[in-house]
What we know:
Largest sheet: 7 strands, mixed
CATH class of the largest domain: Mainly Alpha
Shape: elongated
Structural class: alpha+beta
Strand content: 5-15%
Mean pLDDT: 85
CATH topology of the largest domain: Butyryl-CoA Dehydrogenase, subunit A, domain 3
Oligomer: single chain
Order of helices and strands: HHHHHHHHHHEEHHEEEEHE
Strand order of the largest sheet: 2-1-6-5-4-3-7
Number of helices: 13
CATH architecture of the largest domain: Up-down Bundle
Amino acid sequence: MDEREWLAERFEEHRPRLRAVAYRMLGSLSEAEDAVQDAWLRASRADTDEVENLAGWLTTVVARVCLNMLRSRQSRREDPLEPTHEPGADGGREEGVDPEREALLADSVGVALLVVLDTLSPAERLAFVLHDMFAVPFDEIGPMLERSPAAARQLASRARRRVKGAAPAPDADLTLRRRVVDAFLAATRGGDFEALVSLLHPDVVLRADPSVVPTPEPLVILGAHTVAKGAMAATGRARFTGLALLDGAVGLAMAPRGRLALVLGFTITDGQITQIDVIADRERLREIEIAVLDG
């Protein structure tokens, strides 16, 4: 076996971890695959004879590729995809990407976490992902960012505070509210119309801003059956939606390919949903503090 074949075998052994690092850095399965492939091309051209810790070295290569991609994304001021364009929303497939696989991956990582990570600077995201998720020491993270280990630690700490967010709003029935919102998401994903109707107050009101649908004025939908029918049309999108804290209250965030598209806020009275606010306007979304819901 020559050196290139040996390296190729070792790279394939480490590919799952490298893909996991890239996905958490980028929030997109297709971009993560591109980053891992780029890392292989770089590794195949490098002299690895003196590399003692190949796994750590490859992680560094992938992290730097992802950092460059994040910085390029930021310099282009790239906006998240519109909610009607996420993979699989209409039964179609993004070229080279399996929507089901991406949805499962997003669900396993946590849609809310991907959303919060998307609000971090590239340096904060790298420091937090590598240290908190993959136990990479700050002595190794610092050089990737051209900063000291202490500075890298501060970046991760700042990111950690953003991920945790503000404490949930005081509510004696917070557990019930979470259960209701979780049931709403499960029923939407499963296309269970009757379950949705049972969660909605008969006079429920859904309000969606003009960025959600192409209308000059906010859309208002009244009644449990009408709102439930609308939710049924969003079953594909619900695969990229997860529970999150929105300004300390339990809600939902939708993030196709790891980019925040919209959020749903809920008003719940006596165990039933009485109002749903769907927000996709970029300025309004920036004003909402989104955090990961523990547990």
